[in-house]
């Protein structure tokens, strides 16, 4: 049985068109093949490989939901996860240190299973400091694996310094080193004065340090590192300057090559974007031939997504939508009955509507103009939650047919295409459409 607080959080997020922070397993339907691909990736990362995936889908088709599902599964499997939305001031590189800003946000959102909301960097480093006090050969393995990587020598020396600061209880020294790891020093002089090291994390080398972090996390007992970047359009269509856009594409190409050319280990990279951010021949990723040749699907691929770097998220099927509605309705009914002091565990009162009525709603939504190509789970759930709220608060005796076809409060729902136009017509003009059906 789902907890009341979790159910409230899920419904509140869905009403706002957002992905819930917790409880995704209660509303996860479909995406079986996509989930299988990602879990196989996780198995490979645990073995020491790295993977690179693009989640492609129109707005509202479930990219953010899928990314959150991946994050939750990764945390459950012992990975550490960094996630970040790209923005005007957060890209892969830029003249105003936009790449470094992305790195800083990623480090600030480092999540563990115990601290899924982020901010876990100090916790993880303290775990290393505690483990270092125990005798074992793992320390030599850590040293060898990190120091052979670019920038690894300084990184390892700072890790040692952090452990010593923990042992001595030197809070100021710890904070200075944490600032270095977070890329907060503006120049080498400031870093040398605070930490005794002249190298710093910069716009041009921040991904090299992500690769070091992945190895470090693995060596101290985690499964690996997942990096999730959303809003791919920020480095494609939203960059007007062609040179800046090309530099970002070059950085992305370097990340891809590292993942598949053994330049990175124990790391998974997920990027989320709308179709135009990938396929646009002028500003999309495919405008850069080196990326297009690597990301484009082979003509022999067919519908199989296992070997394709790009995972295309299609709309849920009517059957999957019906299952989703049933789960959402059960949560809504449980909360409403508890509010009214009724028995939430009484089987006959768990739902407002019958299965046939939910199917009727799905059929209604699919009959809307353009629904086959443009209907999204976000719109679908908003409409359904509107009906559930009306059913619970004002129109308990109405059937699904009453809500859909008999002049209810849903008449002006923005997502119901064409209804707003009808509302503007006078009575005589409206009669023209009375017998119109699709």
Tell me the layout of helices and strands:
Blueprint: H1 4-15, H2 32-46, E1 50-56, H3 63-76, E2 80-85, H4 98-108, H5 121-132, H6 138-147, H7 152-168, H8 171-181, H9 188-195, H10 206-219, E3 225-230, H11 242-260, E4 267-273, H12 275-279, H13 289-295, E5 310-312, H14 318-339, H15 355-366, H16 371-374, H17 377-393, H18 400-405, H19 419-423, H20 427-430
Parallel strand pairs: 1-4, 1-5, 2-3, 3-4
Helix pairs in contact: 1-14, 5-7, 6-10, 7-8, 14-15, 14-17
Notes on the protein architecture:
This protein has 438 residues and is of the alpha/beta class. It has helices at 4-15, 32-46, 63-76, 98-108, 121-132, 138-147, 152-168, 171-181, 188-195, 206-219, 242-260, 275-279, 289-295, 318-339, 355-366, 371-374, 377-393, 400-405, 419-423, 427-430, and strands at residues 50-56, 80-85, 225-230, 267-273, 310-312. Helix 11 (242-260) links the parallel strand 3 (225-230) and strand 4 (267-273). Helix 1 (4-15) packs across helix 14, helix 5 (121-132) packs across helix 7 (152-168) and helix 6 packs antiparallel against helix 10.
How many alpha or pi helices? 20
Shape field: globular
Task: Name the helix and strand elements from N-terminus to C-terminus, one letter apiece.
Answer: HHEHEHHHHHHHEHEHHEHHHHHHH
Number of beta-strand segments = 5
Based on secondary structure, the structural category is alpha/beta
Radius of gyration: 26 Å
Poorly predicted sequence stretches spanning 5 or more consecutive residues: 343-349, 408-427, 429-438
Sheet with the most strands?
5 strands, parallel
On the 0 to 100 scale, the average pLDDT is 85
Spatially, the strands of the biggest sheet line up as 2-3-4-1-5
Q: β content, as a range?
A: 5-15%
Termini, distance in Å?
Answer: 41 Å
The level of helicity is 40-55%
* Total domains: 2
């Amino acid at each position: 049985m789902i907890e009341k607080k979790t159910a409230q959080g899920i419904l509140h997020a869905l009403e706002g068109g957002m992905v819930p922070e917790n409880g995704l397993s209660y509303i996860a339907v479909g995406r079986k093949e996509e989930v299988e691909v990602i879990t196989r990736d996780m198995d490979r990362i645990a073995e020491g490989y790295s993977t690179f995936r693009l989640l492609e889908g129109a707005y509202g088709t479930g990219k953010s939901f899928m990314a959150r599902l991946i994050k939750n599964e990764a945390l459950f499997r012992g990975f550490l996860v960094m996630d970040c939305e790209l923005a005007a001031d957060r890209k892969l590189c830029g003249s105003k240190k936009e790449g470094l800003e992305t790195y800083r946000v990623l480090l600030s959102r480092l999540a563990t299973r115990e601290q899924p909301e982020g901010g876990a960097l100090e916790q993880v480093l303290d775990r290393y400091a505690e483990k270092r006090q125990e005798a074992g050969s793992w320390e030599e393995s850590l040293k060898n694996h990190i120091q052979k990587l670019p920038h690894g020598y300084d990184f390892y020396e700072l890790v040692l310094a952090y452990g010593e600061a923990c042992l001595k209880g030197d809070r100021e020294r710890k904070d200075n080193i944490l600032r270095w790891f977070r890329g907060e020093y503006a120049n080498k002089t400031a870093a040398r004065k605070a930490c005794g090291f002249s190298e710093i994390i910069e716009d041009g080398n921040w991904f090299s340090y992500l690769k070091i972090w992945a190895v470090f996390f693995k060596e101290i007992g985690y499964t690996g590192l997942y990096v999730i970047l959303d809003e791919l359009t920020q480095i494609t269509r939203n960059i007007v300057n062609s040179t800046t856009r090309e530099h970002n594409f070059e950085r992305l190409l370097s990340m891809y090559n590292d993942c598949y050319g053994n330049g990175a280990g124990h790391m998974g990279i997920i990027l989320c974007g709308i179709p135009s951010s990938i396929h646009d021949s002028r500003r999309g990723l495919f405008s850069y031939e080196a990326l297009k040749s690597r990301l484009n699907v082979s003509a022999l691929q067919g519908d199989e997504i296992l070997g394709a770097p790009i995972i295309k998220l299609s709309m849920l099927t009517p059957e999957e939508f019906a299952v989703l509605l049933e789960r959402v309705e059960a949560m809504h009914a449980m909360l409403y009955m508890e509010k009214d002091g009724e028995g939430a565990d009484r089987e006959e009162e768990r739902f407002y509507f019958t299965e046939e009525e939910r199917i009727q709603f799905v059929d209604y939504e699919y009959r809307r103009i353009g629904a086959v190509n443009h209907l999204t789970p976000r719109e679908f759930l908003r409409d359904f939650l509107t009906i559930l709220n009306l059913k619970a608060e004002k129109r308990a005796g109405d059937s699904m047919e009453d809500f859909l076809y008999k002049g209810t409060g849903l008449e002006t729902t923005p997502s119901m295409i064409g209804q707003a136009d009808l509302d503007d017509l006078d009575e005589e003009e409206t009669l023209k459409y009375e017998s119109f059906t699709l």
